[in-house]
Amino acid sequence: MELTTVIKRNEIYGRYLVAAKDLKPGELILKECPLQVGPQTQAMAMCFNCTLYMASERSCEVCGKALKCSVNCKGKLHTREECDTLSRMIIKSEDFLKAPQIILPLRCLLLKQYDAKKWAEFLELESHLKERKDSPIWFIHKEGVYDVLKKLNVDVDEELVQTICGILDVNSFEVRPLFAATTPQECLRGVYLKAALMAHDCTPNTHLSVDFTFEMTIRANRFIPAGETIFYNYANGLQGSAERRKHLHVGKYFDCTCKRCGDGTELQSFLSSLICTSCKSLISCAEPLKDIYSSDWICGKCSKTIKGNLVENTINHSKELINDYSNLQEAEGILEKLKVTLGPNHYIILELKQNMISLLGNYDGELEIKRKIALCEELISVLRLLDFGDISRHLGIALYELHKAKSQLVYEAYNCNLVDVCQYLEGLQEAQNILKESMKHLLYEPKCSPEGKLAQRAMNDLRVLRGTSSDLERILTLDCA
Ligand SMILES: C[S@@+](CC[C@H](N)C(=O)[O-])C[C@H]1O[C@@H](n2cnc3c(N)ncnc32)[C@H](O)[C@@H]1O
């Protein structure tokens, strides 16, 4: 295969990937299997072979050490080399049940014994050991990993354990287990030696997906000219700058300087902006690359300035509000309250709207369907401003929901004789166009993932919509004849 990336190094990113040729939107950049997969730091124990969550002890029939869900387990992650290496250790399978946080660091440490090349590549990854030394996370890993491994007679020094834990915290990707995770504790993390080299940007140029074997696929989500850096978003793109930047500062040890972080309006999306109490326009952070809540916030229209700590208080209060409802009506009430202080595109409002869209999916009354359409359209207009590229999971999902509500509305209207065949057909064609756009965004999702399943549902929906539209066209042709 033609080379798609080259590894470069600079003072800011350390090592990073650059496009070796022009890459078209959707073009494959990299496919990679994980070096290792294991539970998150706070997560539950899992089968070493297939990652099934395990609450009781059952071990590999060969080494007797690794947790394994059954003799017939179909997973492939517990390799022969790992099995051999574990079999020579004193550790017992019940130790993994008691301290699941040691599973992934130990799995990585075992590489030292059976795969020197991979072990060396792993150690080359950035650990930020110096910055982490004696910080709270250092003590968490000392107690949770190093002290436990020592007690279990694993021959390793503390600095190496901290290096491994640092590498895992800085470089691993959150991956979903084969069996849909229902709680955050069931989420896993995977180490991918090459994918980990992608530098971060809050408007990334890649789309990343992981299939049920944990194989990762990275594609260009827009045109990437040869020589451009390959970027992935380490943070949640739907969060405001303060949240994203805190995540990057605390967990990845750098301050992002991308164009979105450098712009108080977040690319004119106003995702973090508040309503100006004087002129009702929007206030945004004046110096977004500094500490956002220590900096002043300024109105784009009347230039009124307020202190960042006031904004922070408003945000904290709003965050408490958005989970405090048990039905749609209460959610609408909270939305109205939030709109008094937060800008209409604020990420907290966006989160509430997303939750309301899923709640509204359970209703089929005209008012509720119309409300869902309005919310989907508002959400989509903000997502488009955030520059997620030509392939965006968020846009794919929102567009799917919009098509569903639109086709539902026109179907109900036709059934109640509120629209004629022509208008029904027009409505269905509009829904089809929205659905096609949604499918374009969901095209690359692995079939086993929730988004992949949605893409398959979208394909079926498109078939049904096309069938109904053809029937209606036939009726119209007969009418004209
Ligand atoms: C997942 S690693 C990337 C691989 C790493 N550069 C290496 O050489 O092993 C993440 C680290 O890369 C650096 N990095 C990535 N993106 C960056 C950015 N936009 N600005 C500054 N540093 C960045 C930071 O040190 C960060 O902790």
TrEMBL record:
InterPro entries registered for this protein in UniProt: SET_dom, SET_dom_sf, SET_SmydA-8
Residues annotated as domain SET: 1-235
Cited PROSITE patterns: SET
Protein name (record): Protein msta-like
Lineage: Eukaryota, Metazoa, Ecdysozoa, Arthropoda, Hexapoda
